[in-house]
Amino acid sequence: MTDHPPATPLGLGSASRSSLTPDLDFDACYRAAAGRDPRWDGRVFLGVTSTGIYCRPSCPARKPLPENCRFFPSAAACVAAGFRACKRCRPDAVPGTRDWDARGDLVARAVRRIRDGAIDAVGVTGLAAELAVSERHLRRLMIEEIGASPLQLARTRRAHAARALIEQTDLPLADIAFAAGFGSVRQFGDTMREEFGVAPSRLSRGRGAGSRAPAAAGTAGTGSDPAGPVSDAPPRIAIRLRTRAPFDAAAIRANLIAHAIPGRDRVEADGGTVHALDLPGGTGAARIDWSELPASAAEPAAPGGHIGVPVVLTLPRLADAMPAIQIVRRLLDLDADPAQLAAAFAPDPLLAPLVARRPGLRLPAAREPREFALGTVLGQQISLAAARTVQGRLAAAFARPGAPGPEGLVAAPDPARIAECSAEELRERLGLMRARAETLRTLAGALAGGLELGPGADRERARAELTAIRGIGPWTVELVALRALADPDAFPAGDLILRRTLGTRADRETERLAAGWRPFRGYAAQHLWTDFLTATADAVASQPASPRKDPA
């Protein structure tokens, strides 16, 4: 047993010496805490029985005796056991982890759905129904593996989001309560005291460094109305979303621009990018100010090894803040752990140097899974520029009904509206070949009929249902799994760039070479794609210009 963070999810139950899993025992946890190892932050939480607080393993405070330590796999488990967050190391401010994305079992699916706000949207009853289990069974499994119930996980998620809003915005506390998903101000106060040991009013207030937008335009009078502001002006929230350093901002910005859909995305004159967000209350937008981020992933990170990504959210209502934040985190892959990925790929002679050159490369996910699946079908066997054009036509023609979003951005395409059209109509309106129009219509019908492609979906079932659609092959299925299902191990073995880079001719051979990269084959693919495209661009740039011929 080493003191390195595991490459797979923890799966801890309680934190006693006898009940820890073989992959992560008490002694390893204690050595990590004693050494203040930041690589364990976000994966293990230290509860100190003598003080009643819980910390990150990297907390600078003097480490307690082993007999006073308990280790938990989540902050929610610490709170459920009666511990409060440490005021010094702020374990509530640690970025999330993608460990649960590497698993496809029921508990992992539940964690992903809770992270995306399922408890706020449908409650524990609705979540259990989605997962086809009883509430009792779901609660038992969650407590066994995570140490907290679904409701406790949701409460902790809300509390951590609320504290970030308290510290980074000027919103009134009542508005923050509803923005973070609490049903009432009283529930907000009780939960914050349980999580942090103090009332919300006693937490430090102040705007986040670098915030430029009004904290919440038009939010006066919203404290008693969870539906949002009384005025017609949409609420705006400027916040910094934390991620582990390094963060290759240039690479992910280039990726977003390359895949920007007209009407859904926009590049600003100052280099910032704006992206439409599909939220419960309507269409919102996220503006990312890339100029405030390090130009190079190699530049020093902020204290604590974290970087704050400046985002301004324009929302239909304050209650949409939490869903909007989660969409942006997924879009930018802010829960990735570069150190974990570097350790996983270090033994590989091909990937190790690629990761060393781009240690902060991320794997951006789809902001709207169904839109991405439809767009992937449209983009088959055509250039990226042509694909963007057709996807823009799709969004303009079939946007979900409702008022336009901020600055004219449109909602994602409505699969039901697409499915109602004939293949011939789709061919004419979008400029498609008939076979592709048929595939698009069939996929839209499946999505309208309940095919689930979000991060909480049953991945194997989704893959099987996609494969059954004529015109959708393995490459499309794996790309949808990678971006829409957020499966970090998805791997489109038939991709021409991957096969050319690896020097393989058959999918089976490509899969064999990639077997050692599990459970992060998706990140491996992202590094290989980026390296190939960069090398190609450099080769083109180094070629001498062709001599110009004067007109006759």
TrEMBL record:
Cellular component annotations (GO), alphabetically ordered: cytoplasm; protein-DNA complex
SUPFAM superfamilies named in the record: Ada DNA repair protein, N-terminal domain (N-Ada 10) (SSF57884), DNA-glycosylase (SSF48150), Homeodomain-like (SSF46689), TATA-box binding protein-like (SSF55945)
Protein's recorded name: DNA-3-methyladenine glycosylase II
GO biological process: base-excision repair, AP site formation; DNA alkylation repair; methylation
Lineage: Bacteria, Bacillati, Actinomycetota, Actinomycetes, Micrococcales
Keywords attached to this entry: Activator, DNA damage, DNA repair, DNA-binding, Metal-binding, Methyltransferase, Transcription, Transcription regulation, Transferase, Zinc
Pfam families: Ada_Zn_binding, AlkA_N, HhH-GPD, HTH_18
First-tier enzyme category under EC: hydrolase
Cross-referenced InterPro entries: Ada-like_dom_sf (IPR035451), Ada_DNA_repair_Zn-bd (IPR004026), AlkA_N (IPR010316), AlkA_N_sf (IPR037046), Alkylbase_DNA_Glycosylase/TA (IPR051912), DNA_glycosylase (IPR011257), HhH-GPD_domain (IPR003265), HhH_base_excis_C (IPR023170)
HTH araC/xylS-type domain location: 108-206
UniProt entry tagged with the keyword Cytoplasm: no
